[in-house]
Amino acid sequence: MLNPLAQELNEVLRDTSAYSLFSDFGERIYFPNGIIAQSGEAKKFGYAANGTIGTTIIDGRPAMLDAIHRHVPEFSSSSLVGYAPTAGNPDLREAWRQDMIRKNPSLEPKEFSQPVLVPGLTAGISYVADLFLDSTKPLLAADPSWDNYALIAEARRNAPFHQFRMFSGGNFDFDSFESALRKECESGSARLLLNFPQNPSGYSPTRDEAKKIVALLKELAESGKKILAISDDAYFGLNYEDSIEPQSLFAYTCDLHPNILAVKIDGPTKEDFVWGFRAGFVTFGCKGFTKEQYQALVTKLMGTIRSSVSCSSTPPQSFLLKAMTDESEEFEEQKIEYRAVLEERYGKVRAFVNSHSSKVVEPLPFNSGYFMSFEVKGKDAEELRKKLLHEYGIGTVSIDSHTLRVAFSSLEAEQIDEVYATIYKAADEM
After folding, report:
1. Contact (CB, 8 A) for 316 and 274
2. Distance CA 426, CA 430 (A)
3. In the beta sheet, which residues pair with residue 164?
4. CA distance 124 to 54
5. pLDDT tens digits for 347-399?
6. Per the confidence metrics, is the pTM higher than 0.70?
7. Which residues contact 31 (CB under 8 A, 6 or more apart)?
8. Of 349, 194, 177, 315, which Cα lies nearest the Cα of 264?
9. Strands 371-376 and 61-62, how do they pair?
């Protein structure tokens, strides 16, 4: 028996692609009219006293140990130790929305939900999986792909994890992608996750490739297929070649067709070089959605957050908002400097692999992000990883039996030639 609050949200979404795509959990989840909702009401109307939140209040503010506060005196106790709203600091959510539009100008005239803050992009992927994946609703992603996708889909949600071949002949394998997506749609719906720049390959589609992807999605939607199009934009904007499509696929899919529910999962983790902040955002877009329907979907997501971590950590939200809204240009200027560091490292890796060859390792296409990967031919990538680590003291990651990932983001520029020479040497020794 569904909770009445879940039934209300489902009725609002009944005739949408979101409702058709929901998992069993997605249908059941709701945001309770409990402590959080009642506390929000008390903040508005409890003028005499507010005894709703389990926070120690002294002189009208959350109590904060001076041993902590003296390290960040410019921030109030509320912005450091007070609870954040379930969906995140509303000012930060709006700031992130405006920044999304600045980085993706095609979004300017379009309707989409307010970004919801989640405790890291991984949590965002996991929450979206909660809402839309189950044993009868598989996830489609690339091969190779980040190992957490399979963990979330298969182990956490008991959902089949299907893959299409990412590359063929040095290019994005559109034929494999199209074939796999059409097969998924034979059931009437598909749940697709695309990650650009991609982990582990470090590849982003060209403008022409992005157009073909979007056109295929539209064609399938027009034929009546319901599609969840998830854009994992963890490394968004870290592009090193002019041919790359500069905007997120979400900018094109968020109003593409009523049968396509687009989801953008992004955040400051990589874009703004704050890896340990564990802050991310989830944004929904669907052609024809009303404000009420967007709010119902956001409320479902809030219920998912509430039932797991309750709310995200407050300090990272406060620090990020301060940096984003500071009137100085330091925030953007410093990010440009760090991105230049990454681009220099990319350039050195590109120059090395373009001038070297091996019968055992061949670089997969890469043009962006933090990583590049080798296809390991005739040998096991895990054995190569172990050989590099134990014989040469070099750490890499074996994504699967035939893919070795190297994070050039964490290599100093002067290390790159030696590290890559050793990789080729060790591979050939095998």
Report:
1. yes
2. 7
3. 142
4. 26
5. 999 999 999 999 999 999 999 999 999 999 999 999 999 999 999 999 999 99
6. yes
7. 5, 37, 86, 299, 300, 302, 303, 306
8. 194
9. unpaired
